[in-house]
Amino acid sequence: MTNTDQETIENSQELSEEELEQQRLQLEEHHAEIRRSLHKIVDGIPIALTEEEWEEFNRPDPSQEAIDLEIQKNLLINQRRKYLGDTDWYLIREADQPQSYPEEVKNKRNQAREEINLIESSSTMQQLEAFSSNF
Asked: Which of 2, 17, 70, 123 is the most exposed place for a label (fewest CB within 10 A)?
């Protein structure tokens, strides 16, 4: 919110409903003017931002805590996905050689899939501490 917007709100307590509506319309026009003035440059040509680009531009930056949480989640999930990828060949071999899929590998693959789901739904670093980073 700009200083002008804040001043308008503070002064609005003394205005009639008609004056308030007029100021609201002026604020909307002011914001629309700001939005129209924002462009991206493509091949040296200014192009107005799309609605999605405008929303992205106005989205607040995530906190460092949120960034750290996403990094840790991605690390833990990628470790488990790597294990699943590294052991996929057991499934192929099982088709040719029944009973060749070690129970230990089956169990750990199931654990990896379950943990991926739990990690994805975690919302705090404390919840992630329950998962080993050496999968």
From this structure: 17
The beta-strand segments (E) located in the chain are: 39-42, 45-48
Q: Which amino acid is at 83?
A: Y
Strands of 25-118, DSSP E: 39-42, 45-48
| The two three-digit tokens of residue 36, written as one number | 């129209």
Give percent helix, percent strand, percent coil of the chain, each to the nearest 5: 70, 5, 25
The pLDDT tens digits of the residues spanning 24-61 come to 888 888 777 776 667 777 788 878 778 888 788 778 88
The 10s digit of each residue's pLDDT in 62-88 is: 888 999 999 999 999 999 999 999 999
Geometric angle at alpha carbon 32, from 26 and 38, rounded to 5°: 140
Task: Write down the pLDDT at residue 33.
Answer: 73
End-to-end C-alpha distance for the chain, whole angstroms: 47
- Two structure tokens written together for 57: 């531009």
